Amino acid sequence: MPDFDLSIRGGTVVTASDTVRADVGIRNGRIAAVADRIEGAARSIDASGLLVMPGGIDSHVHLAQPTFGGPKMSDDFLTGTRSAIAGGTTTVIPFATQPRGASLRAVVSDYHKEADGKCFADYGFHLIITDPSPSVLGQELPALVGDGYTSFKVFMTYADMVLNDRELLEVFDCARGCRALVMVHAEGYDAIQFMTERLERAGKTAPYYHGVSRPEIVEREAAHRAISHAELTDVPIMIVHVSGREAMEQIRWAQNRGLKIYGETCPQYIALTADDMKGLNMDESGGKYVCSPPPRDHASQEAIWQGLQQGVFQTFSSDHCPFMDGVDGKRSPKARTSFKWVPNGIPGVETRMAILWGLGVDKGRIGMNEFVALTSTNHAKMYGLYPQKGSIAPGFDADIVLWDPNRKETIRQELMHGACDYTPYEGLAVTGWPVMTILRGKPVCEEGKILGEPGDGGFLKRGISPYAAK
Ligand code: URP
Ligand code: ZN
Ligand code: ZN
């Protein structure tokens, strides 16, 4: 009887802290040994010339999420997680979204039905709180945190989701009590409404004006307000999808004051700019790049790099939120009347790791260990999955990506495995690419060929985040 089910031999193991030439032995879906030389496995994979890194964890994706009357999201759990594993990501955390008036428990149960038996990658759920009623904050939310849904997101904009300041304070206070980690979408609703109406009155309705309607100042103001509320209620928060210097500096300022404020950024803020939305009419489809906060400019990209290099951002997530580029999505008849109806969000779960490697590690902006921290380890730590996920050491789940740091690829739609009909990164040339993805010891994707099956991925009940309130 062999000692191991699988060995990965001849590669270089890269974790958030170390880079070592080592073999990896896997037994029962877990890493059983990391050693100079491992013999005696039922199957062996030759990883010579490759990096052996923890499978990606994408802690910010939207799959099969209700859009409250807007176009349907193009990825469900099956296609979204298929896309994830093709890009080297083995765990995703999408959002169970509470429509106003709904019970959180019912929302979670329905979302499980969407996911059950369909996933190629492991998954947990964050919650989205839109209606912080006394029963939600008093009973449902604390009970769900105890059941492994240990983080939730709140919105400072979007008519169907926005919380006012009093509600934010109540929710933050509840998070402190039940030790949930709060994710904040920081853009100010009233300022965006004001700007949108002003632009529409001037006939400025093309997709490009989406970015003009929510400039960095709107994000900065909301980030500062969220930080102030967090300080007042003494609760740590994570400000998600930070787009540029203004919000990044607010987070850095708060961190320098000793506050537990964390930050996340995403590929669109290092790879796209507002100019991408400049298809000045709907036929040129600037709508393909419409997301919130919107991509900014090259100076903002540099600020995001500073935030990544200085540790202001703990996580690099995709904010995968896919809509078709057609009449069912970005160019619906309603969306053609104004940018304000273009569904917000872009696909990215499959390209996240290749973009950070290509623009970051390959260009010398960050190191390999920082790459692992930003794409995997820190997500596991932040969201209560560590030490099950997020590293390569005995006892961890054998979630692994074999990475070719020299492989040159051009991102293009024909390489993608999701259901969306475009990638906003079409034509982006990168060096560094995933060649095999392994989920709990099972190779699930090799050279873009899906080997896994729906149902390989399982639900992850998460622990309390060590970054949440003590
Ligand atoms: O435009 C975006 N980011 N849509 C996804 C929803 C969100 O706010 O994360
Ligand atoms: Zn958001
Ligand atoms: Zn999002």
TrEMBL record:
This is D-hydantoinase. Residues 51-444 form the Amidohydrolase-related domain. SUPFAM superfamilies: Composite domain of metallo-dependent hydrolases, Metallo-dependent hydrolases. One of its GO terms (molecular function) is metal ion binding. InterPro entries: Amidohydro-rel (IPR006680), Hydantoinase/dihydroPyrase (IPR011778), Metal-dep_hydrolase_composite (IPR011059), Metal_Hydrolase (IPR032466), Metallo-dep_Hydrolases_sf (IPR050378). The gene is hydA. Its cofactor is Zn(2+). Belongs to the metallo-dependent hydrolases superfamily. Hydantoinase/dihydropyrimidinase family. The keyword Cell division does not apply. It holds the Pfam family Amidohydro_1. It comes from Rhodoplanes serenus. Keywords: Hydrolase, Metal-binding, Phosphoprotein. Catalyzes the stereospecific hydrolysis of the cyclic amide bond of D-hydantoin derivatives. GO terms for cellular component: cytosol. Coiled coil: none annotated. The modification N6-carboxylysine is found at residue 153. Carbamylation allows a single lysine to coordinate two divalent metal cations.
